[in-house]
TrEMBL record:
Gene3D superfamilies per record: 3.10.450.40, Copper amine oxidase, catalytic domain
PANTHER family, sorted: AMINE OXIDASE, COPPER AMINE OXIDASE
MF terms in GO: copper ion binding; primary methylamine oxidase activity; quinone binding
Keyword Ubl conjugation: no
Region annotated Disordered, chain positions: 336-355
UniProt-annotated catalytic positions: D422, Y509
PTM summary: Topaquinone (TPQ) is generated by copper-dependent autoxidation of a specific tyrosyl residue.
Keyword Oxidoreductase: yes
One term under GO cellular component: plasma membrane
Entry protein name: Amine oxidase
Gene from which the chain derives: AOC1
TM ranges: 29-53
Length: 802
C-alpha cells in the first residue's frame, strides 16, 4: 500500500501546508490549488473525451470523473476460512455438512431415511450445525496451550418412525471425519423433546396443504365474492397462506390457525377475514382436520357450516375492499411516488477508505484497532461472537443473539395466536445484503451455510458484512476557549467504528442486527426494525385503520442476548451502583438541610438478587468487575452494561400461560452463573410449547446460586412496543425503531483507551498570530483516492449448496 501512497504529487503541497499556518493563507497553497485546477481541467477534458468515446462506441464504459483519482490502497487483505484448520467457532463447511449427513444416514441403528425420500412418518435429519466446544476446553486451548477441542456437529432428527415419535439431538464428531455420535443430553432441559413441540417442516406442510386446498376449494366462491381473491385454482388475484404459532392452548396440542393474505407485492400487509384452524396433533396424519373456521368476525365449527350459513343468508357477508381491488393504490409497494427528492436524481455520500482496509479478516476472525473476535451465524440462534478482546484482554467469551419475539394482540384468531418466537422461524436465514444500501460499498461480505429442513445446506450469499464506518460524530472533542475570542486548543477524534452486520428476514419483518466496536473500548449491540407490518380486519382498539380497511395490530418486539463477560478472567462479580438520595445537614450551613444524590455500591450475591426489572425510581448502573484487579486508582476494573432499549412487558407470567416460554422477556437484565447446561435462554422448541417450554429461563434464576466470583452471564433484553401507523407503509423504518445496549469499560482502563489513536487531531494556536498548528500524529491528509469498487452485483438466490 505504501507504493500507492507515494504515487501522489499534486496533493502533497496542500497537505503539508496545514501544519503551521491555515493553508489558505500561504502562497504555496494557492500555487498548489492552481496546479490542481489546471490538472483537474486536463483530467476533465480527458475524462469527457473518454465518456464521449465510450458513448459513441456504444460500450458501457467504466470511465467517470472519479476514475481520474488514483485507487486507494487495498489495505489489509482478507483471508478466507482455512478449511484444513478451521477456527474453534467456524461454522461447518460444506464438506463437513456432507460428511456428517453421510455418517448419520449410514448408521443402521438410527434407521434414518435420506431427506429426499423421507416422509412424515420416517426418521430423518432436520438440521445440522456446529456444536461449539465446552468453554473450559476452549479456554484451555486459547489461553493455556491445551489441545484443540474436537470439532463436533449438532444434528437434529425428526424421528417420526419411532413409537411414540420424538425429536432427537445428536452430537457428532470428530470432524471432518465423523466416527462417533451420542445423544445431546442436557439435565436442565425437558427430555425427551416432545414431538408436538417440533418445528413444522416441509414433510408436515406437505400433509397440511391438501387440507387447506380442500377447504379453500369448498369456499372458493365465498372468497371470490367476499375479497375478489381466492386460494384454490386462483389466477391473478391469489391468496397466500401462513400458519400461526403457538400451535395450541396448552402443552402437547398441535393446531394451527391458517391465515390468508393477498398475493403480490406487499401482500403480507393485507390479510383477509377468513381463517381456518387445522388440528394436526395425531401421529396419524389421516386424522388431521379442519377444526374451526372464522369468516368476517364469525366462528364456525366446519367449512360446511359456513357454506350453509352463507347460502341461507344467516352469515353476515364480507365485501371486497376498494383499496384491494385497485392496483393503482401503491401503499404496499416500493414504486417511487410523490414529490421527487432530490429534485434532480443524484447520488448520496459514500465511504472511501483512503488508508485501505484497516481491519483484518482471517476466516471468521476479525481484528480492528485493538479489538478482536470470532463470529458465526447459527441456524437456530442467529449471530454469535466469541472471544471478544480489546488489546489482547478478553472482555466477553460469548456475545450472542438468543431470541427475537413479537407478540400480537387482536380479536381475530390470527392475531390472538400470533405469538412469534423467531428462533423457530430460522433466524439464521439472513439473506443477501445489498452493497451500498445494506452495507457500505467498502464492506467485506461473507457467505454462510444453513441446513434445516433441506437435503443439503443452503448457501446464503453475502449474508454478513463487516465494515469500518465513520459514524459521522466526534467520538470525543473539546474546544478550549481562552474566553478572549480565541482558543487554547481543540482536541478531537472522529468515531471510526467497526460494524458486523446481518439482516434477518423473518417472513414479513427485517431485523437489522449490528455489533459495533468503538475505539474507546465500547461495544454497541443494536437491532433495528424494518420490513412489512402485519395487518388484519380487526377492532380499532388494537390499532389504527390503514390500507384496505385493515388495522395494524399492536405488538411488542423483544430481543434477548447472552453476554458471557469475562473481565480479566472468568471469575467476576456483579454489582449495581445505585444512585440514591441523601438528606443531610448542609456541612457549610448546619442550620440548613441539603438534599442530593450519592452512589451506593450493591454487590449482588445470588441469581435472584441479580434479576433486574427496571424501576424508574431506582436508577442504577450495572457493573461487572474483577475483585482481584484494580486500575491505577485502586478501583476494581469492570465493564458496565447500559440499556438503551427497554420496554415493560405487561403480559403477566403468573396469569398468562404462554409467557412461561419467554420468561427472559420479564427481565431487562438477569445475571446467572454460567453453565454448559444453560447455553441459551430459549430454543426452537419453545415456540410450539410455550406452556411447558424445553428451555424455561426462569429455572436459570430460581436455583438462586451464588454469583460472587463466579463465571457470570448477563442476559440482556431489548424491547419496544409497536403501534403501527400509516407511515409504516410501505415498511417500518429503522429510524426510531433501533434499540441498543452497550458494554462500556467502567474503571477498566486508567483512561480512555482511544488516546492511542493516531486519527485524533490536536489544534493549537501557532507562533505567528493568526496561524494554527495542526497535529495529526503522522496521519497523512492525502492523496485523495477512490476506493476500489466491486461492480454492483445482486444474486438473490439462496437455494442449493453451491
Ligand atoms: C374435503 O372437504 C370435504 C368437505 O369440506 C370433507 O368432507 C372431506 O373430508 C375433506 N377431505 C380431506 C381429505 O380433507
Ligand atoms: C379447479 O380446477 C380444476 C381443473 O381445472 C377443476 O376440475 C375444478 O373444478 C376447479 N375447482 C374449482 C373450485 O373451481
Ligand atoms: C429530610 O430530613 C428532614 C429532617 O429529618 C425531614 O424533615 C425532611 O422531611 C427530609 N426530607 C426528605 C425529602 O426526605
Ligand atoms: C446466482 O448464484 C447461483 C449460484 O452461484 C447461480 O447458479 C445463479 O446463476 C446466479 N444468478 C444470478 C442472477 O446471478
Ligand atoms: Cu413491529
Amino acid at each position: 500500500m505504501e507504493t500507492t501512497d507515494s504515487r501522489s504529487h499534486t496533493y502533497s503541497a496542500v497537505s503539508l501546508a496545514t501544519s503551521e499556518t491555515p493553508s489558505w493563507k500561504t502562497t504555496s497553497f494557492w500555487q498548489a490549488i492552481s496546479v490542481v485546477l489546471v490538472f483537474a481541467c486536463v483530467v476533465l477534458t480527458v475524462a469527457l473525451g473518454a465518456v464521449v468515446a465510450s458513448m459513441s462506441s456504444g460500450t458501457q464504459g467504466q470511465q467517470s470523473l472519479g476514475s481520474t483519482l488514483a485507487p486507494c490502497p487495498a489495505g489489509i487483505p482478507v483471508e478466507p476460512v482455512n478449511e484444513d484448520d478451521p477456527g474453534l467457532y467456524d461454522d461447518l463447511s460444506l464438506a463437513e455438512h456432507n460428511a456428517v449427513r453421510v455418517y448419520m444416514e449410514s448408521r443402521e441403528t438410527l434407521a434414518l431415511t435420506p431427506w429426499d425420500e423421507a416422509g412424515f412418518s420416517d426418521n430423518y435429519i432436520n438440521s445440522i450445525e456446529l456444536h461449539v466446544p465446552v468453554k473450559s476446553e476452549a479456554l484451555a486451548f486459547l489461553d493455556g496451550g491445551g489441545d484443540k477441542p474436537e470439532r463436533q456437529a449438532l444434528v437434529t432428527v425428526h424421528a417420526g418412525g419411532k413409537t411414540p415419535p420424538v425429536v432427537e439431538e445428536y452430537v457428532v464428531g470428530p470432524l471432518p471425519n465423523p466416527a462417533r455420535h451420542a445423544p445431546y443430553s442436557n439435565p436442565a432441559r425437558r427430555s425427551p423433546i416432545p414431538w408436538t413441540s417440533r418445528a413444522i417442516d416441509a414433510k408436515e406442510y406437505a400433509l397440511i396443504f391438501p387440507i387447506i386446498e380442500n377447504a379453500t376449494a369448498a369456499v372458493h366462491d365465498i372468497l371470490k365474492e367476499s375479497y375478489g381473491y381466492t386460494y384454490h385454482n386462483c389466477s391473478g388475484h391469489c391468496l397466500v397462506d401462513i400458519d400461526t404459532v403457538p400451535k395450541g392452548y396448552r402443552s402437547g396440542q398441535r393446531r394451527s390457525w391458517v391465515l390468508f393474505h393477498r398475493g403480490g407485492v406487499g401482500g403480507v400487509t393485507y390479510f383477509v377475514g377468513f381463517m381456518i384452524q387445522i388440528t394436526h396433533e395425531s401421529v396419524d396424519p389421516s386424522e388431521w382436520h379442519v377444526s374451526r373456521v372464522y369468516y368476517n368476525k364469525q366462528y364456525f365449527d366446519s367449512v360446511e357450516q359456513l357454506i350453509t350459513g352463507y347460502a341461507d343468508g344467516s352469515v353476515e357477508k364480507d365485501t371486497p375492499h376498494a383499496d384491494i381491488q385497485d392496483d393503482e393504490i401503491l401503499y404496499p409497494t416500493f414504486v417511487r411516488r410523490g414529490k421527487p427528492q432530490p429534485a434532480s436524481p443524484s447520488r448520496g455520500p459514500t465511504l472511501t477508505e483512503p488508508g485501505g482496509r484497516r481491519y483484518a479478516v482471517r476466516g471468521r476472525h476479525v481484528e480492528f484497532m485493538g479489538w478482536s473476535f470470532d463470529w458465526r451465524l447459527t441456524t437456530s440462534q442467529s449471530m454469535q461472537l466469541y472471544d471478544v478482546r480489546m488489546n489482547g484482554e478478553r472482555i466477553a467469551y460469548e456475545l450472542s443473539s438468543q431470541e427475537a419475539t413479537s407478540f400480537y394482540s387482536g380479536y381475530n384468531p390470527g392475531m390472538l395466536n400470533n405469538l412469534f418466537v423467531d428462533s423457530y422461524w430460522d433466524v439464521g436465514r439472513s439473506f443477501e445484503l445489498v452493497r451500498g444500501i445494506d452495507c457500505p460499498k467498502t464492506a467485506t461480505f461473507f457467505n454462510t451455510l444453513q441446513q434445516r429442513s433441506t437435503k443439503e445446506p443452503r448457501l446464503m450469499q453475502n449474508a454478513v458484512c463487516v465494515f469500518e464506518l465513520n459514524a459521522g460524530i466526534p467520538l470525543r472533542r473539546h474546544f478550549d476557549s481562552d474566553f478572549a475570542g480565541g482558543f487554547n486548543f481543540y482536541g478531537g477524534m472522529a468515531d471510526h467504528v467497526l460494524v458486523l452486520r446481518h439482516i434477518n428476514t423473518v417472513y414479513n419483518y427485517d431485523y437489522v442486527y449490528d455489533y459495533i466496536f468503538h475505539q474507546n473500548g465500547v461495544i454497541e449491540v443494536r437491532v433495528g426494525l424494518t420490513g412489512f407490518i402485519l395487518t388484519s380486519q380487526d377492532k380499532n382498539s388494537y390499532g389504527y385503520p390503514l390500507y384496505g380497511g385493515n388495522i395494524g395490530n399492536i405488538h411488542q418486539h423483544a430481543f434477548n442476548y447472552k453476554v458471557d463477560l469475562d473481565i480479566l478472567g472468568a471469575q467476576n462479580r456483579f454489582e449495581t451502583v445505585d444512585i440514591v438520595l441523601e438528606n443531610i445537614t448542609d456541612p457549610q450551613r448546619p442550620d440548613l438541610r441539603h438534599i442530593q444524590t450519592r452512589i451506593q455500591r450493591n454487590l449482588r450475591r445470588t441469581e435472584r438478587e441479580a434479576a433486574v426489572q427496571y424501576d424508574f425510581n431506582r436508577p442504577k448502573y450495572y457493573n461487572f468487575y474483577n475483585e482481584e484487579e484494580t486500575n491505577r486508582f485502586a478501583v476494581n476494573r469492570g465493564y458496565r452494561v447500559q440499556l438503551n432499549g427497554i420496554a415493560k412487558t405487561l403480559l403477566p407470567r403468573q396469569d398468562w400461560a404462554p409467557m412461561r416460554g419467554v420468561a427472559w422477556q420479564d427481565y431487562q437484565l438477569a445475571v446467572t452463573r454460567r453453565k454448559e447446561s444453560e447455553p441459551s435462554s430459549s430454543s426452537i422448541y419453545n415456540q410450539n410449547d410455550l406452556y411447558e417450554p424445553l428451555v424455561d429461563f426462569q429455572t436459570f434464576i430460581d436455583d438462586d446460586e451464588n454469583i460472587v466470583d463466579e463465571d457470570l452471564v448477563a442476559w440482556v433484553t431489548l424491547s419496544t412496543h409497536h403501534i403501527p401507523h400509516s407511515e409504516d407503509f410501505p415498511t417500518t423504518a429503522t429510524a426510531g425503531t433501533q434499540m441498543q445496549f452497550f458494554l462500556r469499560p467502567f474503571n477498566y482502563y486508567d483512561e480512555d483507551p482511544s488516546v492511542g489513536s493516531s486519527n485524533a487531531v490536536l489544534i493549537t494556536p501557532g507562533e505567528r498570530s493568526g496561524s494554527v498548528r495542526v497535529e495529526r500524529f503522522g496521519t497523512p491528509t492525502g492523496p485523495a483516492c477512490v476506493s476500489e469498487q466491486s461492480p454492483f452485483r445482486y444474486n438473490g438466490t439462496w437455494r442449493g449448496p453451491h
